[in-house]
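Internal tracking record. Fields below are filled automatically when a chain is submitted to the structure queue. Please do not edit lines marked as system-generated. If the sequence contains nonstandard residues, flag them in the REMARKS field before resubmitting.
Queue: standard
Priority: normal
Entity type: single polypeptide chain
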Amino acid sequence: MARTGSGPPAALALETVPRPGVVLELLKPITWFPPMWAFACGAVSAGADFEGRWPLVLAGVVLAGPLLCGTSQAVNDWFDRHVDAINEPDRPIPSGRMPGRWGLGVAVAGSVLAMLVALALGRWVAWASLLGLALAWAYSAPPLRLKQNGWWGNAAVGFSYEGLAWVTGAAVMAQGAMPEPRILGIAVLYSLGAHGIMTLNDFKSLEGDRSAGVGSLPVRLGPERAARLACLTMAGAQALVVALLWVWGHPLHATAVAALVTVQAGLMARLLGDPRRLAPWYNATGVSLYVLGMLVSAFALGSASG
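SYSTEM-GENERATED OUTPUT FOLLOWS
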């Protein structure tokens, strides 16, 4: 298919409405897993019986994944469209497959639909969703554009994908009531640990961020220091989770999480030997153990609440 200059293919330039598959590509389904998993952990941590509540659970999963996370992806791609036109021209917006201002329209429509679903699920679900949407827009959109600063940007993503999704799951199972303080505390700790996961995720775009002036932590601190900080952040948050579970009378769950952290420590030692090359490897191995520990912690909380 011939191209005209550096713009989109001529045939695509004539399209005025995006195809459903292009909209789905914009929403990036592969990114939905972390908040959906955190939502599930939050639901388990509430200790309520799932029987008779599956419609609420399903609605909450859709809210956490396709609606909130998907909307955040649309927001990000809209405000990054000029950079993507250079670095990733085949994405839906710069390629012309998402014509005109449809990218912004999807982001706005997704935000509205997410809030309507959240309001139907209860007050605390609505507040958590509203904060998540605010962070999603602040992360990508000017004037804040938190993604320009690795400290703030990673915190926004960590709290949205892990903490707020966890709180949403717990609130749904509590029929819209505010989750108990122990649930909130564990959700906050796993959100803090997720800051390290986001830092490792930034290694894949290190060169592009450096050339574009994006202040990710691998750019600001250098790969070695950023990797050490990420490991300390993840391990430290989980160590506090282990301590709390032990104090709260869940020694078996605390031991299980401690074992997972111990294995992660061994993987971290290898990661620190060559963080630029091994960051994707650690994201596929160590992070899997991290999220497994989230579920173990959720069962501990659920056993106390049930």
